[in-house]
TrEMBL record:
This is MEDS domain-containing protein. It comes from the Bacteria.
Length: 189
């Protein structure tokens, strides 16, 4: 799989096992190269993923300790609700700090978006789509790769189709492809 700094990818999968199969090599490669790696996922799932990742890496637990896990309450749902502007402020601040310190030449982030399932309503979905479209600007502002992961068992076409359009690249069945339906931040209503 060919990924480059600035990539904003919508990964579609079914179930936690397939999610983990997709992002394990993504994070393993980054940790092996000493890159900053962040997994936005519920703490319990993040710890379990960190253990699975450790078993897949020659360096084991030592390298996996470098994987930061941030639960939705510390990221997407900081004040108990989703605010795309606040989330982008948090992400810009994290990137600025990460690269200003010179500790990494590339950052890798993956976000399990399952936290959003219970919030899906038209107004929320519109805000999430606007956020995803603007996240491309953030990812391109620093040397980083971002993967937004949507479980097809949790989200229907009414959510997935517009969200896919907010990502320049799509990852499906192990393949990352350019998205011919991509609508940039200025095109998303």
């Amino acid at each position: 799989m060919s990924l480059a700094p600035g990539d904003h990818i919508c990964a579609l999968y079914r179930g936690q096992e397939e999610r983990d199969q997709l992002i394990t090599p993504f994070f393993a490669d980054g940790l092996h190269e000493g890159q900053a790696c962040v997994f936005l996922a519920p703490e319990r799932e993040g710890r379990a993923f960190r253990d699975r990742l450790a078993m897949s890496m020659p360096e084991g637990r030592l390298a996996c300790a470098e994987l930061q896990v941030k639960p939705p309450e510390e990221s997407y749902l900081q004040n108990g609700t989703f605010d795309g502007d606040s989330m982008l402020d948090l992400l810009y601040s994290w990137s600025h700090g990460t690269f200003a310190e010179g500790n990494s030449n590339l950052a890798r982030l993956a976000a399990d978006m399952s936290w959003a399932q219970s919030l899906v309503r038209p107004a929320f979905t519109d805000e999430l789509i606007r956020y995803e479209a603007r996240a491309t600007r953030w990812l391109r502002a620093y040397p980083q790769i971002g993967i937004c992961m949507y479980d097809l068992d949790k989200f229907g076409g009414d959510v997935i189709i517009p969200l896919v359009k907010a990502h320049p690249r799509v990852w499906l069945n192990g393949m990352v492809v350019e998205n011919p339906y991509y609508m940039g931040p200025d095109e998303v209503a």
